[in-house]
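Thread: "does anyone have the structure for this chain?"

Original post by V.I.:
We have the sequence but no experimental structure in hand. Need at least a predicted one for the grant figures.
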Amino acid sequence: IGFILFFFTAFTGMGGHLLGANPAVTKAGLAVADVLPGSIAAKPDSIVPHYMNLIADGSPWLVGLLAVCALAAMQSTGAAYMSTAGGILTRDLYKRYLNPASTHNMQKLAGRMGVAFIVVSALLVATYSRDALVLLGGLAVAFGFQMWTPLAAVCWFPWITRQGATYGLLAGILGVIFTENFGLGILNDMGLGFWGRWPFTIHSAGWGMLFNASTCLIVSAMTQNTQDTAHRMTYHNFLREHASLPASKKGLIPVAWGITLAWLFFGIGPGAVIGNDIFGAPNAGVAGWTFGMPSIWAWQILFWLLGVGMMWFLAFKMNMSTIPETEIVALVEDIGDTAEEQAQRG
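Reply from O.Q.:
Generated one for you, tokens below.
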């Protein structure tokens, strides 16, 4: 699926310019064919249906495969969101506050009901309020990015306190809201519209993280407590015992950092400009392109392959996606049934 979607993205991206969808490129004589209408330039979202219609007769199998890829991508994304939302509602709300003695079956029922509620709500919003859908979609990514501070606290920095992470999240959410159109409308109504959307061209997620991290650090420094730190270290010591890199692989850490940073810089960062003409000038035409395709395409394909190798190295050689060698024993058993029910089953 990833392989097909990777190349189809190239088709709909640079391919559209070279196949007639960009009148300026076609007029300059750089297009290799004129099979797509120039009207696509005014409505870029229509390029995918045009591609589907073009290849439907000649390659119906590819249309079917692309449809399967699209459905699989939507299903996998939706499943992850729904299962996560169900787990949050069940573990962090229902069991923690509403029914601490809930059994497995009760937790599963609560999770299913929570997922059903979220799905129905999402369908209703998508059906009856497109404005709200656009608003929530724009805020979702920026809000989600604010979870990096509690994630960092859980995985790497035990000195971040509960209060620091909580107030940091609050500050980050406010930072996102008031650098997006929704919050700007509120500020303008109050006569406080001193900036526009995304000040200094920094995304709202970036502004949110700036306020988030700053508040988190300041509040954490002010709320340090020996007892709470010892409690957090219990969890961090558990992680270090089961998830840390073996001593025999410690020497690979600089190599992993170097490979990852180099790939990010040259594959998707500023260094990608090298790919514009390293395999032939953009306007050289098919005859002047080393691999018979625009240089940037070849560059991106090359770094896609290198990225696959990088992910394999990180996942298996750096133990980022391997099973711990030591047996894991839960620190606290708070998922199982109540003691009375366990005794009855025993």
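V.I.: this helps a lot. The mean pLDDT is 85.
O.Q.: and The chain has 14 helices and no strands.
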